[in-house]
Amino acid sequence: MQKKPFEKRLAGPNFELHQPTTSISRATELYDILVRNDYFYPERLSFKSFKSPEDCMILFNKRLVEIRKGDSMYYDIVQEKDGGYVQVGEIYAKGIDRKNMAVNNIGYFVDIDKRGNGIAPGAVNLLTAKLFEMGFHRLCLYCEVSNHASKKVAEKSQFEYEGTKRDFVYDPYAKKFWTVDMYAKLAKGNNL
Ligand SMILES: CC(C)(COP(=O)(O)OP(=O)(O)OC[C@H]1O[C@@H](n2cnc3c(N)ncnc32)[C@H](O)[C@@H]1OP(=O)(O)O)[C@@H](O)C(=O)NCCC(=O)NCCS
Description:
alpha+beta, single chain, seven-stranded mixed β-sheet, Aminopeptidase, 7 strands, binds coenzyme A
């Protein structure tokens, strides 16, 4: 039987993963989410200086460069609403290391009103399956040590705790370093 194209399967029971588009309406949507949420987001440090949807457009353009270079992948987590889609979160894979077939930083975010419904673990499972299908062998993610919800997501997605990296991320706004727990998941076999 012919294999279904992967992109057709990037959908969970209560969400879908869409490739992001770069437009001012998308930037406005993301900006609204940032305002509504607690700003704990992939680029959470730089988000603290975001003052308008135009700042989100600058971010999208930076991301496009990363995507084109093959360094990162980004997906909007969306749900159907009124015949269209609304963004309820985001998932990304950064630090793509093709030499070692590794992805060094998977991150995710779910809108504050939508949390607790298993959306993030579902999205991690979809992205993980896609990355393994693309031939990656080792996938890694980091959770700030007190971020219990994120650690739950890692565990529910069968990532294993590999250790704690002390003072791993510097936060210039809080003027402190963050300590993170590292989780990783390996492909079965060597995936070559
Ligand atoms: C971490 C995060 C992505 C989890 O997404 P999610 O779709 O809510 O994931 P789940 O539904 O599996 O919930 C995970 C845990 O969050 C906690 N949780 C449940 N409902 C919650 C709610 N309404 N609000 C906050 N946390 C909740 C629970 O501990 C839950 O684990 P449990 O199901 O074993 O009880 C989400 O809380 C978030 O976006 N946080 C801010 C951004 C962030 O920290 N990202 C990770 C950094 S890489």
